[in-house]
Amino acid sequence: MCGITGSVWRDDRSAITPDHLKKMTDTIAHRGPNDSQIWMNPDHRDAYGNRIGVGLGFRRLSIIDLEGARQPLSNEDGTVRLVFNGEIYNFQTLRRRLEGTGHTFATHGDGESIVHLYEDLGTDCFDQLNGMFAIAIWDARRNRMVLARDRIGQKPLYYAVKDDRLVFGSELKCLAAVPGVCTEIDPAAIDEFLTYQYIPHPGTIWKGVRKLEPGHYAIYENGELSVHRYWNFDPSVERPIRPAEAQERLRELLSDSVKLRLQADVPLGSFLSGGIDSSLITAIAQSQSPNPVNTFSIGFPIADFDETVYAAQVAKHLGTKHTRFEVTPSGVDVIDKLVWHYDEPFGDSSAVPTWYLSELTKREVTVALSGDGGDELFAGYERYQALWLSQKLQRLFPIQRIPGIGLIRRLPDSNKRRSIVRRGKRFLEALGQPTARRYLNWLQIFPESLRASMYTDEFVASLPESDPFDFLDSVWARSEGRDVVTRASTSDILSYLPCDLCTKVDIASMAHGLEVRQPLLDYRIVEFAASLPVDMKFRGRRGKLILQDTFGSMIPPSIFTRKKMGFGIPIGAWFRNELKPMVHDTLLADDAKIAPIFRKEAVAELVRSHETNEQNHGYRLWNLLTLEKWLRQWT
Questions:
Q1: Looking at 2, 174, 182, 499, which residue is catalytic?
Q2: Rounded to whole angstroms, how far apart are CA atoms 511 and 213?
């Protein structure tokens, strides 16, 4: 696990100097505290004698082949050079095949297999890789730079093409270190952020700076960049399969995925929240380990946000070596750190506990397994239940005929984390909308009408004609013909999972030099889960049925039946206590950076409504505070 940077240029006026490249690389030292390397060739010539400059930077977190495998790596004659961030879990199989065709290896790491595979297959090589990765390959023979990102988007990769030059890096701050790259904020990105709590790919907060989409590669040659999809995942296809056969296939896939992710030359452990997904991953890892697995959970002093009692039950059942951390998280202490590390506005408040868990886990191990992805793959979110129920209600009678709807709409909002009233009101507000729009209504942080009422006229005038809904609509369309639960879950796989969850985990863990591996996100499992008939995963009020049917004997039965808690923090209470002064000193300050975006009286009303308990705007205030803090720190 590492960080990568680099550039290609054709004009001396846009050349990247060694100092620039070193600065780009040093900005992500946290991703690779064990080693730093840069390689440059400012005088490469193409077949016509035209000069091309190229540079690659690398920060290393040593996981496999600790003494060797330093990057950039090259082939035997130096015509192919590579830097990559991530892990290739099937590299041993690839290595044996490549050695059989005559390739010579100088290291024992996984990166060299990519180099030789690219020599043989070109860009078709990425389809052969099972892992999480962001890759940059300089191909001197073809005078081109090739970038690639893993299928699910576990590892980030940003790039910009400006002034006849390509620059790229594992984090946006790499590009911000180069003058003239991150210069103008994209208003559409702010509108998208307030909708989703993240900025969807391929856009970023900066105009002209892009995220390489998951499952894609890009080629930069002759001053032009082209982007291509290599993962031909089709979620519109459902494959009939008998339950017993499906369970056996899932058992094989997940067991193999965990086995592959246990490869490491450093201490390894597992996150254990006490939920279904992390418990199953830990159980499978323990069944494959001769020694007790190191497991880690994080607790909070507020019972409504503390799952560690369930984690302890699972740890005792499995016989792991369990460590429970307890913290009193304070947004006052951590928010500035999060804003710096996440680079662009990122509003998922569960980044806070993820940050603390990563920080504390790194004290014991360098690699940790995680259960991320189970809810998306196997229909575990309550919003899937809501979507399913809404479809049934719409068939029965129009929304205005629902008994008691007028009374429910007039009820005051609740501030409890799992408020039935608040969830019921959101459910009813969306019931009459088309399915995809209805789903967005339950996902979005600021509804369209609220955003419109808060924006200044000048900011509205700066927005393009495009709608933030277009992003969800585009991924929703890829599962045409499937049932609503499958369409919602596969849309989350293609949007929320890479843009929010993977981003959250990657940045929070790599900020502390911790590698997190997610066995459920093996692309083979993702494809298999998406192809299953919905009734194997979800029926009525319950999801993850096939996980229980397949692995139910491995963990305590109560873990499958207990109420889902999620991974949250008391964000609403913070804004009435610890964060109240910060809100007044920033969002309501005369010099607030968000003033050109939001009408001050609208922000003040949002704050007042929350502080007086009229409505719970905790998550909205968190997103506004994140945006304000980002603007203060990065502009």
A1: 2
A2: 22
Phi, psi of 419 (to 5 degrees): -65, 125
Beta bridge partners of 138: 81, 145
298 belongs to an annotated ligand binding site: yes
Q: What is the CA radius of gyration of the chain?
A: 25
Determine contact, residues 419/455, Cβ cutoff 8 Å: no
Find out whether 370 is annotated in a ligand binding site: yes
Q: Which residues pair with 541 in a beta bridge?
A: none
Token output for 401: 């005929």
Torsion of CA 508, 513, 514, 516, to 10 degrees: 70
Angle between helix 276-288 and helix 243-261 axes, rounded to 10 deg: 70
CA distances from 140 to 75, 119, 143, 196, 562 (A): 11, 12, 5, 41, 57
* Alpha-carbon distances, residue 2 vs 5, 19, 261 (angstroms): 10, 20, 17
**Annotation-wise, does 404 bind a ligand?**
no
403: CB partners within 8 A, 6+ apart: none
Q: Is 414 helix (H, G, I), strand (E, B) or coil?
A: coil
Identify the H or E element spanning 189. Answer: helix 187-196
Burial of 82 (0-12, 13-18, 19+ CB in 10 A): buried
Predicted confidence at residue 155, as pLDDT, reads 98
Predicted confidence at residue 69, as pLDDT, reads: 65
DSSP β-ladder status, 165-169 and 158-161 = antiparallel
User: Can you read off the two tokens belonging to residue 529?
Assistant: 């889960």
Quick one: pLDDT at residue 565? 64
Query: HSE (CB half, 13 Å, CA atoms) of 144?
Result: 15
Q: Which domains does the chain have, with CATH numbers?
A: 2-229 (3.60.20.10), 243-297+305-326+335-378+487-561 (3.40.50.620), 570-634 (no CATH)
Q: What pLDDT score was predicted for residue 405?
A: 42
With a cut of 70, list the residues of the chain below it in pLDDT: 1, 64-69, 303-305, 329-332, 395-432, 565-568
**Close Cβ partners of 335 (under 8 Å, ≥ 6 residues apart):** 582, 625, 626, 629
Residues in the chain: 635
In this structure, the number of other CB atoms found within 10 A of the CB of residue 539 comes to: 13
Name every residue whose Cβ is closer than 8 Å to that of residue 591 and which is 6 or more positions away in sequence: none
3-state helix, strand, coil in the chain (%, to 5): 45, 15, 35
Ligand-binding annotation for 110, yes or no, is yes
For residue 502, indicate whether it is catalytic.
no
